[in-house]
Specification:
The complex is a heterodimer. In chain A, about 65% of the residues lie in helices and about 0% in strands. Chain A is mostly helical. Chain A has a two-stranded antiparallel sheet. In chain A, α2 packs antiparallel against α15 (about 345-360), α4 runs antiparallel to α12 (about 265-290) and α10 (about 240-250) crosses α12. Chain A is globular. In chain A, about 55% of the residues are buried. By secondary structure, chain B is mainly alpha-helical. Chain B is built from 15 helices and seven strands. Chain B has helices spanning about 15-35, 60-85, 90-115, 120-150, 155-175, 180-205, 210-235, 260-265, 270-285, 290-300, 300-305, 310-335, 350-360, 365-385, 400-415; strands spanning about 45, 55-60, 120, 250, 265, 390, 395. The longest helix of chain B is centred in the middle third of the chain and has 28 residues, at about 180-205. Classes of the chains: A mainly alpha, B mainly alpha. At the A-B interface, α7, α8, α11, α13 and α15 of A face α7, α13 and α15 of B.
Chain lengths: ~400, ~425
């Protein structure tokens, strides 16, 4: 089994200066080889399903590919679509590294976006210059998401409630509560009374992130912020003492406790930071893409982000290509539907299969005859092992 | 797991009991001191049978609320007494259980008092709780079988959804969603779908030893994609949005019981099957040799293997059985509750079922009780939405009632249950020693 946490000796998530080492030998290619083969296998199974409903898989995949990267505009749209996935998947991956399974990214993202959309429409933001207004709105998102991540973290540390259940429940609560706040007309809470559909008021221009390409969805500064966030997470995990503690808790909470790490502090800290990353991604979408919040915008981002984090094996740098693949497939699917009449849900099936084949790498290794590299050191975090009980 | 941190099977400790007792005390003070004096003194009533001859029980809501409030205060006092003298602890535990149960009538009475309505039908509320608790109880049994054998299953949601979608698709394709014969065949298809996904979960997590939670997430994602795909490619093009669902059966003799018979024993088949499955799960798991083997695989697979139990085989059997039960829960959604399928129609029920399982501490009847608790909060949510409860000028929005089961789940998982201890080997892949 390859590990989510890298084996000691291999550089953590390929840092740029070590890149040549990655391509040095066949075995070092494995972290890339398995996901690539998983994608091929998933596409093959998807092709069988397309054949079963009587369409030509090659036509469908060609349309999908053109929908993803057919023109510069589509490339920009794909990157724009991928932007929130990077932050959200990073939130999941960060929690993974501490052995925590944060399914609550959807709720944390939504709460972060809501707080950003709310604070962004305050009167004082109107008088702010851009360099002040934008961080103001983004920090609001970070705080909102962080607080919503703090709740399951504190519950786990304090009472032992498993984060998988509490975060799923918090997701539903956030969705319902935000829907009510944005929909409600009496009392009027966040709804913009002048808009014909339920949505919040638009942010002032000063609080909007600068756009690079005016595609659909646009490519804006949040993409670079998210890439920066990946570097930040890599740095925290690999180059700080706290990051070492986090990885230790993920590898073996009992050993970490014996080594003097306060496991509960790490749990609360990681869940809060994880929520903050998701909140930043949400605020970036509000400030960059739409400028307002409408209910139901971030549906399924949570589950997608889990899949991306697993695809990238919780490696902060691998998340960028994984998220771009994921986002661009979703961005390209409508063209496929338009040209072949196939439901866009086929993309969802292919994505789930990619995840299955990445997780169950035995299948991929058997089909493509990839030999297993012998790994030692850190064990892969097992979320199931602490099910229902505390570490 | 090291010896020093080995989980000790224990219930709630006194310190935690006292905290809960104090919380009840605060609630009691609020009820007696603030809520009761501010409620209009109009009589409300519970009715026990549908017209023409309703049996009614009318009362002044203020009296009921004050009475419940006083009981809460007694509980709080008891928690302090028990802190000083341990002999009082059993009484405190009893009072806490009664107080917790009293929360249900309290919510009903309070909301009735705050709404315009004069009466509400209690039997209907109870039966509706049982009905809405059906998929939760079935899901909890599915989880029970998997987890007792040592395999965590968070894919119950996906198993249910896939069974609901594929079962209904079969119904549409085979019988145009009409006819009892095809309906029953489709229900079997749904159950088998659940079993098949159970087998996939077993293959991935038992044989390949992939993290069981990851396997569950994959199942959930896959189910969402496949069922949405089937709906848009197969169901929608045929223009069939609704089909006949299972029809009501009345149990002979029992359905003639006055007051409850008509409501409880005249119901749909999966509803009745649910009780059978809960009882059978309890019997097989705790009273048969095979059940003992399943439990031994969940507690200490290495010891079980030493005694000649084939752990891999037992885990496969248990997970597939769990899948079959989850499949029946899926059939409930698309072929009993509503004759139709919508995308993501299970809407988190599988996860609530897991919470019910944890609430029940991995025991069938307690998990059933947990499922009914969630069924009750759902039924109450729907009921209160109709009653239109207003506090001051603020009409409580429907979203709040919809969120009720989720809030209750968090409270239950975090507070009331405390540190429930799962089967010792739950979540740990088993590697046969060579």
């Amino acid at each position: 089994m390859t590990t989510l946490a890298e084996a000691p000796g291999t550089p953590a998530g390929p840092p740029p200066d070590r890149l040549p080492r990655i391509v040095r030998s066949y075995f070092d290619l494995q972290p890339v080889l398995v996901p690539v083969c998983a994608i091929l296998l998933a596409l093959a199974v998807g092709a069988v399903i397309i054949l079963l409903v009587g369409e030509n898989p090659l036509t469908a995949y060609w349309a999908l590919l053109r929908g993803m990267f057919g023109s510069w505009d589509r490339v920009a749209a794909s990157l724009g679509r991928s932007t929130p996935f990077i932050g959200a998947a990073l939130a999941v991956a960060f929690a993974f590294r501490a052995g925590l399974f944060n399914i609550g990214v959807e709720g944390q993202l939504l709460v972060g976006a809501t707080i950003a959309a709310w604070i962004g429409t305050w009167g004082i933001v109107d008088d702010m210059p851009g360099p002040v207004a934008i961080p103001f709105v983004l920090v609001a998102g970070i705080v909102g998401g962080g607080l919503y991540g703090f709740i399951p973290g504190a519950l786990k540390a304090r009472t032992g409630a498993h984060e998988v259940i509490t975060t799923i429940m918090l997701n539903s609560i956030a969705v319902l509560f935000v829907r009510w706040m944005v929909n409600s007309q009496d009392p009027l809470i966040l709804r913009d009374p002048s808009a014909s559909v339920p949505r919040t008021a638009s942010l002032p221009d000063a609080a909007r992130l600068p756009e690079f390409v005016d595609s659909q969805p646009p490519l804006h500064l949040s993409f670079l912020i998210m890439v920066g966030l990946c570097v930040f997470v890599w740095f925290v995990l690999q180059r700080t003492a706290r990051g070492f503690e986090i990885r230790m808790v993920g590898a073996n909470p009992h050993a970490a406790r014996y080594a003097g790490v306060s496991v509960n502090v790490v749990i609360v800290l990681v869940m809060t930071m994880s929520g903050a990353f998701a909140g930043l991604a949400g605020a970036g979408e509000i400030s960059g893409t739409s400028g307002y919040l409408s209910p139901g915008v971030f549906v399924a981002v949570g589950f997608d982000s889990i899949a991306i984090a697993l695809l990238a094996r919780a490696n902060p740098f691998a998340i960028i290509p994984a998220a771009i693949l994921w986002g661009s497939m979703l961005a390209g699917a409508p063209l496929m539907q338009q040209e072949t009449g196939l439901s866009i849900d086929i993309v969802r099936i292919v994505q789930a299969l990619v995840l299955l084949f990445v997780a169950a790498d035995v299948i991929v290794r058997t089909v493509f005859r990839i030999r297993r590299r012998v790994v030692g050191g850190f064990e892969e975090p097992r979320f199931g092992a602490e099910w229902g009980a505390t570490a | 797991m090291s010896v020093a941190t080995l989980p000790v099977r224990r219930g709630l400790r006194l310190g935690r009991l006292q905290t809960i007792g104090v919380l009840f005390g605060v609630l009691g003070v609020v009820l007696v001191g603030y809520v009761a004096p501010n409620i209009e003194p109009t009589d409300k009533a519970f009715t026990f049978e549908p017209p023409p001859e309703p049996l009614t029980f009318s009362f002044d809501p203020r009296t009921v609320i004050v009475a419940i409030g006083i009981f809460f205060l007694i509980t709080a006092v008891l928690s302090f007494v028990a802190q000083r003298d341990e002999r009082w602890e059993p009484y405190l535990r009893g009072a806490l259980i009664v107080s917790t149960i009293l929360l249900a009538p309290l919510v009903v009475v309070l909301s009735l008092a705050l709404s315009e309505a004069v009466d509400t039908n209690i039997v209907q509320l109870v039966v509706e709780s049982l009905r809405l608790g059906t998929p939760i109880a079935l899901g909890a049994m599915a989880g029970l079988w998997c987890e007792r054998s040592g395999v965590v299953n968070i894919g119950i949601e996906g198993m249910m959804l896939a069974a609901a979608g594929i079962g209904f698709t079969a119904y549409v394709v085979l019988g145009d969603a009409q006819g009892t014969g095809w309906l029953w065949i489709s229900i079997v298809v749904a159950v088998l779908t659940g079993g098949l996904i159970g087998a996939l979960h077993a293959l991935v997590s038992v044989s390949f030893r992939v993290d069981q939670i990851i396997s569950g997430v994959v199942i959930n994602l896959l189910a969402l994609g496949v069922t949405s795909f089937l709906r848009s490619q197969v169901i929608v093009p045929r223009g069939i949005s609704t089909g006949t669902s299972t029809s009501e059966i009345s149990v002979p003799l029992l359905s003639d019981i006055p007051v409850i018979g008509e409501q409880l024993f005249k119901n749909k088949p999966i509803f009745f099957l649910m009780f059978v499955i809960v009882a059978a799960s309890w019997f097989v798991l705790f009273k048969t040799p095979w059940g003992l083997r399943v439990r031994s695989c969940g507690e200490n697979p290495h010891a079980a293997e030493t005694l000649g139990v084939d752990v891999i085989r037992i885990r496969y059997q248990a997970v597939i059985l769990g899948g079959l039960i989850a499949g029946l829960a899926g059939a409930w959604f698309s072929m009993e509750s509503q004759g139709g399928f919508q995308d993501n129609m299970t809407a988190g029920t599988g996860f609530i079922a897991l919470a019910a399982l944890i609430f029940g501490r991995w025991r069938p009847w307690s998990a059933f009780a947990g499922a009914m608790l969630f069924g009750f909060t759902r039924a109450l949510g729907t009921r209160l939405q109709i009653l239109d409860v207003t506090v001051g000028d603020f009409s409580i929005p429907s979203e709040f009632w919809q969120a009720l089961p989720y809030v209750v789940t968090i409270i239950v998982v975090a507070g009331v249950v405390g540190r429930a201890i799962p089967p010792a080997a739950d979540g740990q892949p088993y590697e046969r020693p060579r």
